[in-house]
Every structure is written in C-alpha cells, then in structure tokens.
Amino acid sequence: MIPRPWQNWLVERADPDSIQGNLEVSVHFWASDQPNACGEWLHEIGLGPETDRAVEAYTRVIGDHDAPSAFAWAQSITDVDKRASTIEEVSRRFYRFDPKGFLATVSTSPLPASESEALVGMVKRQAEFR
Predict the structure, then answer these.
(1) Which of these, 57, 65, 88, 98, has the minimum number of CB atoms within 10 Å of its CB?
(2) Nearest partner of 28 among 9, 56, 5, 2, judged by Cα
(3) What contacts 33, CB < 8 A, 6 or more positions away?
(4) Residue 61 in contact with residue 77, Cβ under 8 Å?
(5) In terms of Cα–Cα distance, which of 28, 42, 29 is closest to 72?
(6) Where along the chain do its domains lie?
(7) In angstroms, what CA-CA distances link 130 with 87, 101, 123, 125, 126?
C-alpha cells in the first residue's frame, strides 16, 4: 500500500514541534479505516520516540478487534512510562473480552517473566472489581 500523499508530507515537511501530535491524530483516523495499511506505514517510517504517540493511538484503535496485535504494538513504544501505561490499557481491554487469549499472548510475549506476572495479576485484580 502506498501511503497517502498527506502522510508523506506530514513526515517529510511538518514542523518538528508538532509532528508527534499530527501523527497521533492522523494515525487514529487512518487506523480506523485501514488498520493494516496504517500499521505497515508506521513500520516504514520507523518506530522511535517521535512515533510513540502515534503507536499509542494505533493500539487504542486496533485493540478492540485485534488485541494480540495491539499488545505487540504497545511493546514497541520507546518511552518507558508511555509503554507501561499503554500495555496496561491494552491488557485490561484484552482480558475483559478474551481472558484465555490474553493469558496465552502474555505467556509468549517477550516481556520479562516478572513483568508478565505482575501484569496478569494487575489485570485479574481489576477485573474482579468490575
């Protein structure tokens, strides 16, 4: 899929101070319409600190229909705090809709065992209070 012209412009010519916010909004709308093409484009432009907000938006959009992918995408966020909060958000939603799928995904994820165990415990505790 060839990125839409405005997406290339956004990356090539946008003001560096506003590119993160612009990417976030653009990804949110594009992922709602074409999640696979949007994900491919994110990989093409390169993942890093400047795309963290866009990846976070992407996980929110795809999380309800492809939770395992959203979980994997959340792990690619470079900012430690943003990554942790996004993984937790995706995990809560994932567990609510598919507890077995969530547990299987976490057990095979590259997260360290201690993080995986803490995440599973947190999600299960929160689910009990709903």
Answers:
(1) 65
(2) 56
(3) none
(4) no
(5) 42
(6) 18-128
(7) 19, 19, 11, 9, 7
The CA-CA-CA angle for residues 90, 94, 99, to 5°, reads 145
Dist. CA 112–CA 107, nearest whole Å: 10
Contact 57, 42 (CB under 8 A): no
Q: Which amino acid is at 105?
A: T
pTM: 0.84
Cβ-Cβ contacts under 8 Å for 67 (sequence gap 6 or more):
90, 93, 94, 97, 98, 101, 102, 105
pLDDT tens-digit map of 17-74: 666 777 887 888 889 888 998 999 888 888 888 889 999 999 999 998 999 999 999 9
Structure tokens at 24: 């976030």
